[in-house]
Amino acid sequence: MSASSSFQQDPNQIKVLKSAKTKSGLPQAPSALEQSREESSAQGTSGQSPSAQTHLEQEVADEGKKEETRVPSAQTPSAVDAFGNSSTGKCRRRKSEIFHSFGDIGKTWSGGRGRGSCATQLQRIAEDFCGDIDPRHQRRHGVGRGRRSVGARNRTRIKVATNPELIALDQKYRQLKERYDFLQEQFTISRRLQKAALQLRDELVSKFQREFEELRAKVQMEFIFEQAQNKIMAEELVRQTRLLEHSELAQKADEELLRRLQSQCDELRVWRAEAKLELVEFEDHSQHAGGVSSAS
What is the four-CA torsion angle of 172, 177, 179, 181, rounded to 10 degrees? Predict the structure, then answer.
């Protein structure tokens, strides 16, 4: 019976494969000796001899010792994952144990991949289980340069999803993001209101300034007009004042002339009265002289 048929019939080997998928923080995979013992018990039930079981167990133990002596020298600082767990110790030994424990079971678990040899298929299976690359192929696959398989990324996501601290941080981040979005929306609304208020203020200021300029121009024109009128009236007043002064002077001169004429008229009246008396006296004297002559 082939190894694939024995694996499909025995549920213990399925448990071993499932436990090999776990990492630090999850249940650890059984050692190579336990896997070989389980395989030997399964093979014993399927009809294999104890000598073959002992030989397989010895090969697993030798390979485990070789990997233990090989892995510490190849360990690099970049082999520590994001959670502080080393991927060069237990995980690498676990991959080596998986390589040498399950033989050509990878043909069944390779998903029908026909490319590459059986070792390449087992390498892919180990990558699916352990999430990292076999230490024997570090240089070829570029371990230490940031390469991670799909299994490692999936386990990292599982750790992130099951870590209570990360869950609390994620909830806090979501709350902070909601609060930030709310504050951003309020800030946007306040900015719009402020912009509208500033625009309204500018419009009112420009309107009042325009009205003030119009009123100022109107008042200034009225002031200039009144100032011109006042100037004209002042000139007219000066002219009238001068005319009045001249008329007063003329009136005084006329009054003085009238007094003189009146005094002259009075003198002429006096002279007339005197002349009239002299004329009467002369007539009397002439009449008296004519009477004397006639008498003689």
Answer: -170
How do residues 160-208 score in pLDDT, each as one tens digit? Answer: 566 778 888 888 999 999 999 999 999 999 999 999 999 999 999 999 9
At residue 59, the pLDDT reads: 58
**In-domain check, residue 137:** yes
> What does the pLDDT look like over 106-122, one tens digit per residue?
444 444 444 455 566 66
The widest CA-to-CA distance across the chain, in whole angstroms, is 237
Which residues touch 19 (CB under 8 Å, ≥6 apart)?
27, 28, 29, 30
d(CA 205, CA 81): 65
The pLDDT, as a whole number, for residue 228 is: 93
**232 CB-side CA count, 13 A:** 6
> Does 267 fall in a domain?
no
Q: How far apart are CA 130 and CA 117, in angstroms?
A: 20
Asked whether 44 and 70 are in contact (CB, 8 A), the reply is no
Question: How many residues comprise the chain?
Answer: 296
Q: Which of 79, 119, 115, 83 lies closest to 99 in space, CA to CA?
A: 119
Q: Is residue 210 in some structural domain?
A: no
Q: Which of 69, 57, 52, 4 is nearest to 31 (CA)?
A: 57
Secondary structure (3-state) at 223 = helix
Which residues span the domain enclosing 74?
3-162
Distance CA 234, CA 228 (A): 10
Facing residues of 241 across strands?
A: none
Kindly state whether residue 59 falls inside one of the protein's structural domains. Answer: yes
Which of 252, 14, 18 is CA-nearest to residue 128? 18
Q: How many domains does the chain have?
A: 1
